[in-house]
Design goal:
Shape: globular
Mean pLDDT: 79
Distance between the termini: 41 Å
CATH architecture: Roll
Radius of gyration: 17 Å
Number of helices: 6
Number of domains: 1
Length: 196
């Protein structure tokens, strides 16, 4: 799986840029689709694209985000070594499908990940674009994913935007944006808060 947008045979593209969440939290985010579009625009709006050679060390957050995407599903045991015991994982639009908006600590994170891994089959990430922050402890990814939801037999396709913060070589914070409509259709569950 090619998890990083390649610029050349020995290059990885990265965008060092300031934290886009500051602007996003000040803007008027009214729908998940608008928020995904806004976050994607902000990611792409960063300073001029720079490419670093593979021989140059990438930031710890960039590396951890790449490894998070590679191992979450495919090598779950390895993935567990990447996360801090006090990790916080925010899932901004998960409450729309009845899931928690925030997972705090290893136990809550592992409970949710275990549920997810049990619910999907042949889940894969693709079209991954990773961007490094100027701050080596932050990174963001745009990634597509698909897989089969076992309880419903439906295909789940999703576009994610994932922000990561690292401390001490571990993932301490993830903020994940996804379209809950895609998830609701695949899970055959209603979008909470919508009037029928």
């Amino acid at each position: 799986m090619n998890t990083v947008a390649s610029a050349g045979p020995n290059q990885v593209c990265a965008k060092p840029w300031a934290n886009p969440l500051v602007h996003l939290t000040r803007s008027r985010v009214t729908t998940p689709r608008y928020a995904l579009e806004e976050v994607t625009k902000q990611v792409r709006r960063g300073v001029e694209r720079t490419c670093i050679t593979k021989e140059t060390s990438m930031t710890i957050a960039f590396d951890l985000l790449q490894r998070h995407i590679q191992t979450l599903v495919d090598d779950h045991e390895q993935w567990q070594t990447l996360i801090a015991d006090d990790m916080v994982w925010e899932l901004a639009y998960a409450p729309a499908i009845g899931h928690p908006a925030r997972l705090s600590g290893r136990e809550e994170v592992m409970h949710h990940v275990t549920w997810f891994l049990g619910a999907v089959e042949n889940f894969r990430f693709f079209d991954v674009r990773l961007y490094a922050f100027a701050d080596p402890e932050g990174a963001v990814a745009e990634v597509k994913a698909e897989g089969l939801i076992k309880p419903t037999g439906r295909i789940y396709r999703q576009d994610y935007v994932v922000f990561l913060r690292a401390v001490g070589g571990k993932i301490v914070f993830l903020r994940e944006y996804f379209d809950p409509v895609h998830a609701a259709k695949a899970l055959d569950t209603p979008i909470l808060g919508l009037e029928s």
